[in-house]
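thought: user wants a sequence for this fold. calling inverse folding tool.
action: design(structure=
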């Protein structure tokens, strides 16, 4: 059972903490000030969510997604041909499908 504002039950909270520790911080994964600047410029040029647009909807893109997950590969991370604009909902759905949910360890 989930208590209060917790997202996960007690049984899964430790698994989530362990996964987050193995992942490293956002800055350690490359999402630093240089990335934030690049992201902002990309979203100015590509303001609509690609997935929503393909389905006939107009939604603001708020996330720059790596089409092929970079998994720490800096060349793939910075390859703009590997970027696409997505709304948060589409990005979260795509990421969950790719990773198989939290705790995957991939």
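)
observation: tool returned 106 residues.
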């Amino acid at each position: 059972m989930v208590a209060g504002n917790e997202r996960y039950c007690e049984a899964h909270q430790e698994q989530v903490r362990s996964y987050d520790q193995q992942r490293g911080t956002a800055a350690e994964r490359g999402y630093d000030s240089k990335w934030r600047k690049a992201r902002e410029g990309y979203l100015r040029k590509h303001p609509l969510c690609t997935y929503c647009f393909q389905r006939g909807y107009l939604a603001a893109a708020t996330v720059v997604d790596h089409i092929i997950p970079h998994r720490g590969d800096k060349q793939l991370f910075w390859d703009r041909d590997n970027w696409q604009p997505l709304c948060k909902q589409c990005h979260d759905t795509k990421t969950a499908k790719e990773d198989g949910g939290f705790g995957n360890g991939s």
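thought: summarizing for user.
answer: Here is the designed sequence. The chain has two domains: 1-29, 31-99.
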